[in-house]
Amino acid sequence: MFDTRIHDLMRLLVDYSIEVKPGQLVLIQGSIGATDYFHPAYAAILARGGHPFTRITMDDLTVELIRNGSDEQLDWMNPITTETFKRIDGLISFAGNKNARYLANLPAEKVKQHVHAQREWRRYYLDRTGSGELRWVGWMPPIEGMAQEAGMSAQEFADFVYAACKVGIGTDPIAAWKKVKVEQDKIIAWLDKRSVFHFQGEGTDVKFNAKGRTWVNCCGTRNMPDGEIFTSPVDDSAEGVMTFRYPALFNGQEVEGIRLVFRAGEVAEATAEKGEDLLHSLISIDEGARRCGEISIGTNYDIQRFSKVILFDEKIGGTIHMALGNAMPYAGGVNKSAIHWDMIADMTTGEISADGEVFYRNGKLLI
Q: What pLDDT does 98 receive?
């Protein structure tokens, strides 16, 4: 039996996040563990006059390819997938897997090869979402496997998911996210006038230049839940060190205790307490993987616990996160890479300044 909150959630995704219009072609995609949520999404798109279709991914098939595929098969990209991302008008992507660690213990170099093969469709996806031609939103359904990963019961995780999306907490979720947009627009108007950003915290002392780049308001129109403000720094500007207390996950594999040293915008030194081989494998996947594609401030204070689910964790109020690899075109970013790997750092005892003026201290914005 479905949680009654699912209908409000789908209305939020379809009517607010991607604003489906009559005649638009909308893809619903996700792993086989998320298929229970395809029907309500399909119905909501139909109600708006759109043309929904579905694409299901199966984790065990991906494992089979990586474990037993030849080099030619690992390097191959399905042209139908590429063509799909050239043509669709909207995308609802259900994140999450029955087993969040389905790629654990697979050879890092083969995982890297498989990821690199996805670069063509990702290029169309990023270019079209960046221009606004393709509207998309990612949502994490309360899948039992993800609840286990987060260390919660199924009901506890469902409550966590919906509350983070501002659904079922006594307010109209669309109105609530519109309010977030207005509040964050004011912050971004201030940030867009500044150039040099200095992040200081436990194990972190790094500067980025964002002159000519745009800060982006993440208010539920691309991710759900949302709640962050980010930019793509100038490619050669990162200088200093960043340390990440939270584990960084990549396709179910975990890297802990990451410390990165940047010089002239590139990672010059990289160490990890766990998973260092994977760290080095991924940052060598291509030239752009060593650069910072995104720097972000989490603003969702309805999320206050780490769940090992990046869609939630990167939004935690009181954290920042940085992504190595592909930059966001709609933020003015130009760096290209086959990866976009988010890493989260605690800032509850740190501060951020812009052109020498402190605007964030101990996990809170001061503007």
A: 63
The per-residue pLDDT for range 309-354, each reduced to its tens digit, is 888 999 999 999 999 999 998 899 999 998 999 999 999 999 999 9
What does the alpha-carbon distance between residue 220 and residue 180 come to, in Å, rounded to a whole number? 9
Task: Say if strands 239-244 and 258-263 run parallel, antiparallel, or are unpaired.
Answer: antiparallel
Write out pLDDT tens, residues 39-96.
999 999 999 999 999 999 888 888 888 889 999 999 998 899 999 999 999 999 998 7
- The answer to whether the CB of 360 falls within 8 A of the CB of 201 is no
- Helix ranges (H only) for the chain are 5-11, 38-47, 59-68, 71-75, 79-87, 108-117, 119-131, 144-150, 154-164, 173-191, 276-283, 310-313
* Distance spanning both ends of the chain, measured CA to CA: 44
For residue range 210-264, list pLDDT tens digits in order: 999 999 999 999 899 999 999 999 999 999 999 998 999 887 788 999 999 999 9
Contacts of 40 (CB under 8 A, 6+ apart): 2, 6, 7, 10
Given the structure tokens 């139908």, which residue do they identify? 80
Confidence of residue 180 (pLDDT cuts 50, 70, 90): very high
CA nearest neighbour of 192 among 163, 216, 220: 216
Q: Which phi and psi angles does 77 have, rounded to 5°?
A: -120, 125
Cα-based distances in Å from 58 to 34, 53, 61, 310:
10, 17, 6, 20
Domains and CATH numbers, the chain: 5-164 (3.40.1830.10), 173-365 (no CATH)
Give the number of other Cβ atoms within 10 Å of residue 177's Cβ: 21
Could you give the CA distance from residue 95 to residue 101 in angstroms, rounded to a whole number? 13
